[in-house]
């Protein structure tokens, strides 16, 4: 049994009036009844003892030197008479003041404040942690004894006073003792006893404990008023009445208000905005309900679209379609209906006045709520139309929150969710893994979304969707919006596949921003900032979803309004459904109506599909019809223009011109000017508009190109150019009498040579100018079609064309051009340069030239170019000796043909020629064998080195855990070991040459293509790939070796050199089999299923295949 209930550790003379521990519990401040201030340590040892009342104002108080008199000061709107008004002294202290001192510490423990009475005047003093007086607050008559410290960025001291108008006011002081604002309590008869601060999440709550007289009675009742501040306005959010009186109250660390009255009460609130999901929002302010439809208006608080006032303070509200359900501070429920302009208030039966909570709307005629009586929680349904309350179920545990989904009430209990049918009252319990929820909602797809404000977790179907969340809103059936402690807004999509929501958009917010509601019509989201002001944003996914909904339902005017306001690309009109655009153009035109809107849409068209690029984040979640063909902006403009002309060409003249300007070709701009000219009344208007879309200099050229000088002069006048710049040109053009020649000069000035050629061809007297133009601008192809074949003009053109091709060394093309011009001698010379023997001899025959000298030059050219077989045919055609033909074939290694011609050689020269053939065959055989031996040695060394390199890479990979097949993991020891694709790309410049397009950089391009991808250098990180690349080239050369071997084998056998033939076949056969059966398998090994590829480059990974044709002679089959 405890026999020592306390321990005496000291005695304070006069007794204790007020005490307060510092927040860190290291210091204790005591104010005694005789006016002494004691500062003690945690072991109650006294640090300092001094009088509370002192004449000093504090170490840091401002000093006033008394400058200025009342008579000379400016008094504003009160006028000069205010200088002579005598101030009536107010009562120094309130009538009901208990004269007790009060002490409060600042939250950081650096200062504490005292509120004491001396000579019937209350004074607030601010002291440092060391007990040194710092400031003395302004002296205010009728200052009350309540004291609190409103912590935060402001760090204000809170107290109470009575104003000159007998109003009770909450007043604020800064730490330096200066006044910092005030607000009036709702009733003047309140006697404030105490003020303190609590927190509910991110909301700070000022709690005012006061008493008032009960209506119709002389008794007093205690009241707790809960205020919050937003946008510099103080809202009275809750009014708690305790007729039996309050003994004590406290805000605990779990954000609960504990009240000790006749019974123990515990309150926990979640401050939420009552929103209908359609943009309507309601907020409580004492006896007023502030309602704003954010779908139509964005009004910052404390202002509102409308305010509904009742006769008592409001504690909770439920928004209905045409009415509002209110819970008053006495527990009664009131339905406020708007009939006409005057609201009608109807009370529900008084028998149900009790502690209501969790009031929730079911429908416009039904709501539900929870009551608590003697620790029993009951779920009631409130039938608004019948003005009655019906008990629906008894809850087994304390409810955390509730929500409505498809006629069922879902109540979140501790670890369970109770489902109760609102009509049949059938209930069912199901387990839940979600924590203590502040809010529970269901998505339209039927998935639970819960918010735990304590742990900052947002649950989605029992799984944590987002940590560090601070608020959330479900936007229709498409998105969940979440604000986080990281000061971001996350947008989760729940359409398409609602089981796995994806975060499709994240944007930064101001610190402390909270969601209020979202508007379904345009995707706007309303946020409230920490200071209370309202901000509106348009998250891209929500806005795109609203636009998509409007487009799908053919509300193109609403879609356009959203696109225009939010700068959304107008290509969505086409890209959202390309297949149906043509059928909807007329509807779009009739919906938009405004010409300027149509112009904006047309000018925004572009080749890009915005659903796949800039808006891919949203449209990747939406199934769109696929376009059947590529997007063509020009065709779209043509289709829109045709529709506009069909609906009303004159009304949509500017839009039609916009279609032409969007295509922005010379021909379309000309048509635009001519179209504007057809409507003479609106020509100036159309011209001014066209100047805005097209560069004025270009438009002047286009106007001149219409050959209509009136149009040109109108454009020039609007260009604000000096007339001296164009009048001389007009005068010159008008001086030409021939209309076609005038057009020629116009086109030449505009450098439109194609058109100039067309008009010049119609001027026979100016063919010289025509030919000069064709040669200078290389318009041969177009010029040939303008003159009949065989005419003198056509022959001149073909001759000039041939001269031009000859300068470009296109000999064959030049020869053909000369043939068209019937210049056969020039054609013969060009065919000779092109070494085209048959055509050259044919042209020589047409030109009556001797054939023998030409044939001799052709034979020499073919022999020099190693085309001995073709040279032998010409020699045979012109009856050259067989001996000479045979020697020509021998020099070209044409063994088979040489053997055939050997038989035609005279007998006396046959042995000599045969000896020459044998000597060349043996020499070529030895050269080929040496070549094969060199290649074989190179192949063998490459394969051996490749094996070593691969082993080293495998060891390095095992030691350093690097994937040796992924070359990007390896350090680049040699910068030049790899030739990138960019360095191998060679740009080519093409130039026009009549009907032939020549490439100036053919040689450089071929050289770049021959350049290997990997450079072989020992020790480089890509050495293995370079070796594989070299081996692939060696395998690629095998067919060429086969061709040489087959040719030599035939020649050797025909000359009875069997041993040499057998030796060559055996030598090459050994190399061929080694490559086929060994080297290829080692360089390109087989990769098992699921195994790692040895060669990292996919291009080199393909195993080459050797030709399957037989190259060996069957004569030596027994030997080989």
UniProtKB/TrEMBL annotation:
Family: Belongs to the ELP1/IKA1 family.
Highest rank taxon of the organism: Eukaryota
Signal peptide start-end: none
Annotated ranges, domain ELP1 first N-terminal beta-propeller: 4-252
GO CC terms, sorted: cytosol; elongator holoenzyme complex; nucleus
PANTHER family on file: ELONGATOR COMPLEX PROTEIN 1
UniProt keyword annotations, A-Z: Cytoplasm, Nucleus, tRNA processing
Organism listed in the record: Varroa destructor (Honeybee mite)
Protein name from the UniProt record: Elongator complex protein 1
């Amino acid at each position: 049994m405890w026999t020592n209930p306390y321990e005496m550790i000291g005695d304070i003379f006069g007794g204790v009036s007020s005490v307060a521990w510092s927040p860190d519990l290291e210091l204790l401040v005591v104010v005694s009844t005789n006016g002494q201030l004691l500062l003690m340590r945690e072991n109650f040892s006294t640090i300092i003892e001094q009088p509370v009342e002192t004449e000093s104002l504090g170490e840091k108080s401002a000093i006033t030197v008394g400058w200025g008199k009342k008579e000379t000061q400016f008094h504003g709107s009160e006028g000069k008479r205010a200088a002579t008004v005598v101030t009536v002294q107010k009562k120094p202290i309130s009538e009901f003041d208990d004269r007790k001192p009060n002490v409060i510490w600042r939250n950081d423990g650096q200062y504490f404040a005292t509120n004491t009475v001396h000579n019937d005047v209350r004074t607030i003093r601010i002291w440092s942690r060391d007990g040194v007086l710092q400031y003395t607050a302004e002296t205010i008559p009728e200052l009350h004894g309540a004291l609190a410290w409103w912590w935060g960025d402001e760090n204000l001291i809170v107290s109470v006073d009575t104003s000159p108008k007998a109003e009770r006011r909450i007043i604020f002081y800064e730490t330096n003792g200066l006044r910092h604002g005030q607000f009036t309590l709702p009733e003047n008869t309140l006697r404030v006893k105490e003020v303190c601060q609590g927190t509910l999440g991110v909301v700070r709550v000022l709690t005012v404990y006061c008493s008032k007289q009960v209506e119709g009675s002389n008794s007093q009742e205690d009241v707790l008023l809960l205020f919050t501040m937003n946008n510099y306005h103080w809202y009275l959010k809750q009014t708690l009445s305790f007729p039996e009186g309050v003994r004590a109250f406290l805000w605990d660390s779990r954000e609960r208000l504990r009240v000790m009255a006749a019974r123990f009460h515990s309150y926990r609130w979640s401050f939420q905005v009552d929103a209908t999901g359609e943009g309507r929002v309601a907020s409580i302010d004492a006896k007023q309900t502030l309602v704003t439809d954010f779908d139509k208006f964005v009004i910052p608080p404390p202002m509102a679209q409308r305010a509904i006032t009742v006769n008592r303070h409001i504690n909770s509200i439920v928004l209905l379609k045409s009415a509002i359900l209110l819970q008053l501070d006495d527990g009664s429920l009131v339905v406020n209906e708007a009939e006409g302009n005057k609201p009608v208030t109807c009370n529900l039966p008084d028998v149900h006045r009790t502690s209501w909570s969790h009031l929730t709307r079911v429908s416009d005629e039904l709501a539900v709520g929870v009551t608590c009586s003697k620790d029993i929680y009951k779920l009631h349904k409130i039938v608004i139309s019948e003005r009655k309350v019906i008990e629906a179920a008894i809850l087994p545990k304390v409810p955390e929150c509730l929500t409505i989904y498809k006629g069922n009430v879902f109540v979140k209990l501790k670890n369970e969710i109770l489902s109760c049918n609102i009509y049949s009252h059938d209930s069912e319990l199901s387990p839940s893994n979600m924590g203590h929820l502040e809010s529970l909602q269901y998505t339209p797809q039927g998935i639970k979304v819960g918010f735990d404000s304590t742990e900052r977790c947002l649950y989605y179907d029992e799984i944590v969707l987002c940590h560090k969340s601070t608020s959330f809103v479900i936007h229709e059936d498409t998105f969940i919006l979440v604000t986080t402690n990281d000061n971001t807004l996350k947008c989760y999509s729940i359409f398409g596949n609602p089981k796995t929501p994806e975060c499709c958009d994240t944007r930064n917010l101001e610190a402390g921003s909270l969601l209020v509601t979202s508007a379904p019509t345009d995707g706007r989201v309303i946020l409230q900032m920490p200071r209370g002001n309202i901000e509106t944003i348009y998250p891209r996914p929500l806005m795109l979803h609203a636009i998509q909904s409007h487009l799908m339902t053919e509300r193109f005017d609403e879609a356009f309004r959203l696109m225009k306001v939010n700068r959304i690309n107008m290509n969505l009109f086409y890209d959202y459904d390309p297949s149906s655009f043509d059928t909807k153009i007329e509807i779009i035109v009739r919906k938009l109506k405004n010409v300027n809107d149509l112009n904006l849409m047309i000018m925004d068209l572009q080749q890009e599909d915005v659903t796949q690029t800039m808006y891919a984040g949203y449209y990747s979640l939406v199934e769109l019809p696929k376009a059947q063909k590529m997007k063509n902006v020009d065709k779209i403009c043509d289709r829109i223009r045709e529709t506009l002309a069909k609906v009303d060409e004159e009304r949509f003249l500017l839009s039609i011109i916009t279609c032409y300007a969007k295509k922005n070709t010379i021909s379309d701009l000309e048509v635009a000017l001519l179209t504007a000219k057809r409507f003479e009344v609106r020509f100036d208007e159309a011209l001014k508009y066209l100047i805005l879309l097209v560069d004025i200099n270009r438009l002047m050229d286009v106007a001149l190109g219409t050959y209509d000088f009136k149009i040109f002069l109108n454009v020039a006048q609007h260009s604000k150019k000096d007339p001296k710049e164009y009048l001389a040109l007009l005068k010159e053009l008008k001086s030409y009498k021939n209309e076609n020649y005038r057009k020629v000069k116009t086109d030449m000035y505009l450098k439109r040579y194609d058109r100039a050629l067309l008009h010049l061809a119609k001027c026979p007297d100016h063919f010289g100018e025509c030919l000069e133009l064709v040669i200078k601008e290389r318009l041969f192809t177009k010029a040939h079609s303008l003159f009949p074949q065989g005419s003198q003009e056509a022959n001149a053109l073909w001759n000039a064309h041939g001269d031009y091709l000859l300068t470009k060394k296109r000999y064959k093309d030049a020869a053909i051009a000369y043939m068209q011009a019937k210049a056969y001698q020039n054609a013969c010379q060009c065919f000779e340069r092109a070494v085209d023997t048959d055509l050259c001899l044919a042209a020589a025959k047409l030109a009556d030239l001797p054939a023998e000298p030409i044939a001799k030059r052709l034979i020499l050219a073919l022999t020099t170019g190693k085309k001995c077989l073709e040279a032998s045919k010409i020699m045979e055609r012109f009856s050259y000796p067989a001996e000479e033909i045979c020697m020509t074939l021998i020099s070209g290694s044409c063994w088979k043909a040489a053997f055939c011609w050997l038989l035609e050689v005279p007998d006396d020269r046959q042995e000599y020629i045969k000896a020459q053939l044998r000597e060349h065959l043996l020499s070529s055989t030895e050269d080929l064998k040496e070549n094969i031996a060199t290649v074989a040695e190179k192949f063998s060394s490459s394969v051996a080195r490749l094996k070593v390199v691969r082993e080293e890479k495998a060891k390095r990979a095992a030691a350093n855990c690097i994937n040796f097949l992924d070359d990007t993991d390896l350090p680049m020891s040699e910068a030049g070991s790899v030739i990138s694709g960019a360095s191998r790309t060679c740009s080519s410049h093409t130039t026009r040459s009549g009907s032939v397009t020549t490439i100036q950089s053919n040689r450089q391009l071929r050289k770049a293509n021959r350049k290997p991808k990997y450079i072989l250098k020992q020790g480089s990180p890509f050495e293995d790939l370079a070796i594989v690349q070299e081996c692939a080239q060696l395998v690629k050369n095998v067919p060429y070796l086969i061709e040489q071997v087959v040719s030599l084998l035939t020649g050797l056998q025909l000359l009875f050199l069997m041993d040499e033939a057998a030796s060559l076949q055996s030598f090459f056969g050994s190399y061929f089999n080694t490559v086929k059966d060994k080297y290829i398998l080692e360089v390109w090994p087989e990769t098992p299923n699921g195994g790692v590829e040895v060669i990292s480059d996919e291009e080199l990974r393909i195993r080459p295949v050797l030709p399957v044709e037989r190259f060996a002679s069957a004569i030596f089959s027994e030997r080989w």
